[in-house]
Amino acid sequence: MSKPEFWNNKKRYYDLKSFWRNQFGCSVYKLQIDAGFTCPNRDGAISTGGCIYCDGRGSRLRQAGPLPPISEQIRRGKEYYRKNKNAGKFIAYFQTFTNTYGTYQKLKTLYDKALSEEDIIGISVGTRPDCVPDDIIGLFKTYAKQYHTWLEFGLQSIHDKTLRLLNRGHSADAFLDAVSRASGDDLQICTHIIVGLPGETREDILETARVISTLPIHGIKIHLLLALQGTVVGDLYEKGQIRIMEKEEYVYTVCDILEILPPEMVIQRLTADGYRDIFLAPSWAVKKLDVLNAIDRELEKRDTCQGIYYKGKKPDKR
Length: 318
Ligand code: SF4
Fold this sequence. Notes:
Blueprint: H1 16-24, E1 28-33, H2 60-64, H3 70-85, E2 89-94, H4 104-115, E3 120-127, H5 134-146, E4 148-156, H6 160-165, H7 172-182, E5 188-195, H8 202-213, E6 219-224, E7 227-228, H9 232-238, H10 247-260, E8 266-269, E9 279-281, H11 288-302
Parallel strand pairs: 1-2, 2-3, 3-4, 4-5, 5-6, 6-8
Antiparallel strand pairs: 7-9
The chain binds iron/sulfur cluster.
């Protein structure tokens, strides 16, 4: 198997760390920011229940007390990554809840503030696909002319039946529409999917990957469904009413997905982590490095890499 030279890495997929090193010639890290946003799927605008896997607590910082200003969150993050990771430059990552849920002026003030900080070379903003009106997308496209700018859409599954089951409060069409409006210019689009969702078959999951592979999407985060205390999924798990994936199946499925995705798509995440205090299952997910190593081993065993079945060629039935 030969892999694309432009990855310039030792992996069998195009990881975010390598992508940034190739782009900027130094180590780049995301600084997590909680700007105090809420979510329309929790505050009643769409629903009050939230997605069935979401713990609704927000960042650890929010749980600890009043949120420090953005500049202070950035300062602390930079200090940590400089000390522990030899970081060079940074991306301000608006991560908690729906980070485009506000007026144009409010959002612009927050993003401008983050971008004005020293050594911040861009922003990445996580949101819902039904929460990006045209003026906000226009704002991101303006930033993208000057900064490295990512818009991250939570999708989870391309199947409406699953989105309904998850209580996502939006359809697959809302996602396709958001991607279409955000595409073009230099704006980078990332999407999040979850593997192991209730009611989904392997073919359902691969269909989500196939659709994503046809869209103008630059990056992906692949998560595993976790059962967390205080969530609907957690309750179902404790009652024995939901199946949580085994490690082998997860690793296998992630490799199948990677084979389908375009070689240019940046793999931003391959596992889920955190939430130690409310974590229920699966226990194997706690060892994140083990999971990543198992994915590497499986790709090696298959002698494949990301993109090998991109555009048409279907993976063999296994
Ligand atoms: S959209 Fe995000 S923040 Fe809102 S309920 Fe769903 S997972 Fe939680």
